[in-house]
Amino acid sequence: MFRDPAVSDIPSMLKTDSLNLLMLGSGLLGGFGHCAGMCGPLVAAWSLNLGSTSCPQSSSPSLAHLLYNLGRVTTYSVIGGIMGLTGSFAGVVRSIESFQDLSMAALGLLMIIMGLASSGWLSFSGKNRGSSAQKGITSVISRAVNRMIRFISGTNTTGSFYAIGLATGFIPCGLLYTAYIAAAGAGAGAHSQAEGFLKGMLMLFLFGLGTTPALFLIGRVVALKGEWIRSRLYSTSSLFMIITGAILIYRAFRR
Amino acid sequence: MKKFVIGLLIILILLPAFYAWSAQGPDCSINLGPCAKTAGTREVILDISPKPVTSMKELTFAVSVIGGNPAPSLFLSLSMPGMYMGRNEVLLKKNQAGKYTGKGVIPRCPSGRRLWQAEVDVPGSGSIRYTFNVEN
Fold first, then answer.
1. Radius of gyration from C-alpha coordinates of chain B
2. Where are the domains of chain A?
3. What is the CATH number of the domain that holds B11?
4. How far apart are CA A180 and CA A213, in angstroms?
5. What would the pLDDT profile of A31-89 be if each residue is shown by its tens digit?
């Protein structure tokens, strides 16, 4: 096991209880001061998909948003636990960096597909499956994408949003990195690796919990007004989803 | 009421972008060498190594206070101007040479922003801020 001396001094600065409160507060503050701007567009983009023609059966947007946030917090907690277990920030991040980029690119692709599906610019409904334009390879691709769309966003299992939340939890984020640094610091100062794991997990759970109100609010408002937005800015909302997806893919491969 | 909520939401989303836009540039070329600032009668010098100063890597922060050593240890806070990045503090302990040193990590911002600020709290002299760019 490797432990960063870089973060080993943090626990001596703060007691565990106050550190946990600090993490919750940091999440709350960061939710509105950071996540709303950085992840808000992402949440708004997939929220626009709720109730659209490509996702007609998501009858409980609140539950979808809760599951999305639960998925996100789950990922944070597990990585936080690993940070605490190893007591190393840089070591863990180095080992998951490629996966983080891959997750971001996959989410970007998902957003683009959702945007295309909700726009109607490309038909994923399967209605045109027999048309001459979609025969051969095009038809195969269309069917594959269609299946993926139905699996991810068009099914009546709201649980798919938990999976989206799990994947979103891997998106690289500066605020999140700071929370991981604190978790690694707490782990480095722990008496055992098990204690370090639990401390790190609890800290990131509280941090994630703190960020939830801001993203839930954004998601719910956009979901509630989604129909209004779609009816007035039909193409624009789809374009917004596609642009958000493209930005995610660009960021994933920029380095 | 609905318009108010939507307006508030738009402001929430745009506020970080506004702060980022309004943030000032660097006042310290940390990659070229240590940065010195005057606080009252004291001169406070910050250096970060290894260079180039890169995010996501373990860094050594060193602070020298010319004109008296104010305390056995100092705190250095790292933040990004215009964007809340959480609380990231480094404890600097005085070594035998009278220099305050400690290790820390500057997180990478996936948005591509590289401007960071180190704030050293020197008892009796207040807070001294150094704004610099890091490599991502």
1. 17
2. 13-126+133-254
3. 2.60.40.1930
4. 20
5. 888 887 777 777 877 776 665 555 554 557 788 888 889 999 999 999 999 999 988 88
Pick from B87, B104, B110: CB nearest A172: B110
In this complex, which of A40, A90, A173 lies closest to B56 when CB atoms are compared? A90
Q: Do residue B85 and residue A12 have CB atoms under 8 angstroms apart?
A: no
Contact A255 B87 (CB under 8 A): no
Q: How many domains does chain B have?
A: 1
This prediction's pTM = 0.74
| Structural domain boundaries, residue B57 | 2-133
Nearest 5°: CA angle at A25, between A23 and A30? Answer: 90
More reliable by pLDDT, B77 or A4: B77
First to last CA, chain B: 43
ipTM of this complex prediction, to 2 decimal places: 0.74
- Decide which of A189 and A201 is more confident: A201
Q: Tell me whether strands B100-105 and B35-39 are parallel, antiparallel or unpaired.
A: unpaired
For residue A62, the one-letter residue type is S
A188-194: Cβ within 8 A, 24+ apart: A188/A3, A188/A4, A188/A5, A188/A7, A188/A8, A188/A10, A188/A11, A188/A87, A188/A88, A189/A8, A189/A10, A189/A11, A189/A12, A189/A87, A190/A11, A190/A84, A190/A87, A193/A1, A193/A85, A194/A85
User: For the segment A87-135, what is each residue's pLDDT rounded down to a tens digit?
Assistant: 888 888 878 878 888 888 888 887 787 777 766 666 555 444 445 554 5
